[in-house]
Amino acid sequence: MSKTTTEPKTATTHERAEVGPTMQGSEILVAALEREGVDTIFAYPGGASMELHQALTRSKKIRTILPRHEQGGAFAAEGYARATGRAGVCMATSGPGATNLVTGLADAYLDSIPVVAITGQVPQHMIGKGAFQETDIFGLTLPIMKHSYLVTDVNDIARIVKEAFHIAQTGRPGPVIVDIPKNVQQQRTQPVFPKEINLRGYNPDKKADDVALNEIIGLIEKSERPVLYCGGGIISANASEELREFAEAAEIPVTTTIMGVGAFPETHSLSLRWLGMHGTAYANWAVSGEFQKDGDKPVKIAPGADLLLAFGVRFDDRVTGKVDKFCETGTIVHIDIDASEINKNKPANLPIVSDIRYALHRLNEMIRKRPIQKKFPAWHKQITEWKAKAPLRYRVTEEVLKSQHMRDHMDGKSSEVILPQMVIELLYELTKGEAIITTGVGQHQMWAGQYYQYKYPRQLLTSAGLGAMGYGYPAALGAKVARPDKQVIDIDGDGSFLMNVQELATAHIEKIAAKALILNNQHLGMVVQWEDKFYQGNRGHTYLGDPENRQQIYPDFVAMAKSFNVPAERVMFKKDLRAAMQRMLDSDQPCLLDVITPYTEHVLPFIKAGGTVADMIYQER
After folding, report:
1. pTM to 2 decimals?
2. Tens digit of pLDDT for each residue in 440-460?
3. Residues labelled as active-site residues
4. Which residue from 16, 441, 585, 588 lies 20 to 30 Å from 386 (Cα-Cα)?
């Protein structure tokens, strides 16, 4: 008797491509985007991209959101991508439209975020002739793209779009740009939509071998002070559950980079929170040891990790400081899907090129079969003591009360001063730690990382590698579009928020209920902190207010928001903060809360750039 079986696909099994009806290049692009599951595109039109916008008006599947600046569109696409793990899509016209995308694309590149950027280009016969609104966006963006395309044949559009999404979303994610000349958009052909992609030389599916993974288990069993140091690679690989299982089974403390925040629950007993320049003191001590000064000479009084399991990280300078002193005496295991990161910044004793989710999955299988016998009671005791010695903390100092900024606005009500840390702690309380948080860049970004405890991956969305001011609110719009079921709040600074304030118009018109919480100190706070520390407090153009009238809050964000039909209010006194914040959270509209805070407050802990843990300041003197 014969029987029918369904054969699994093999390397030689190919799905037949789909041939579509004759259509314009612009229509082929939209059809290809629909086939990739694109439901949202952030796109600003212009002369060289009008054909693409006309085709988008006929799409029943794609929502086109009009940002008020192309940079806002790029950041919004990033926010969408960071919140979902799927490629965000943005589009601009040629020339200045395309160049306005560059900062967002550089940000996506440095933080390994999947973005597909589509740009219109001048007609092919005009390329290289200095035509109106012509820039070589292909050449301009080469150093900050995972891959770049200039479409020269209308028959290539469907294939290129398929390849672009495949490249952006696989392996180490990143941005891909597709530049399409206007005449190619207008040409007609019968498109062929491929079902699968096989790019010669591109193999994103890298897997660790069991010999290397067994060696990791052997190193754990020989160690006394292991630490897991995890980055954005865990989140990109959707490996958070595997990480938690591994950390709990091996009983190893976990610290993350800012990009890795949420990869391991910060409320977990094994969590050290994040490390580096403004990371927790105990995370930095756990990796590199605790020091105290003997005169000018630092003396190590407690050792740090003797085994550092670096998973999905790149040993960024804001984490390592002086790199040769970072985990100086520890054995380093480095797993990353990108071979170029291995030994780039810090030599590894055991380098492994692998998808981190696969590596953790196999490690967990091995440990389930043969559990790790080694326990680390003395190490956990030491970490508990460090956590008790140096928790994150703050207080209203004399400097705060004496600052001109506070004197101008507090009318002697010193007990009503609102410190920025208080604001974020209250936000954490009122949202029960469930909100998606985006940030601008500066002190507020660090406090948002410190005083909101993140339980989930894709919960803190921030410009980490590039440090791009203006990121916060457009990213919140992208995240809210992607996750309408979640409360999405941009914790921002007055300087950073102002850089893309025009996106309040997008929020109102598109009815995107992302909230903006501005910690307004009238200064470029992080630069002020460095001025205080390294330049004797000399202000090098870091005051953003009106020097002629310091009692005025300038600019007036409340009036500005209301001009965009976005509800807004200002809070100056602590007694008013809780109710105002609750009103913001309860609103079903986009809204803004402007909270006045002192500019004299510093972010602690603090390790100077290029410094070591021995230089760390972790409490007010």
Report:
1. 0.95
2. 999 999 999 999 999 999 999
3. 70, 132-133, 182, 526
4. 441
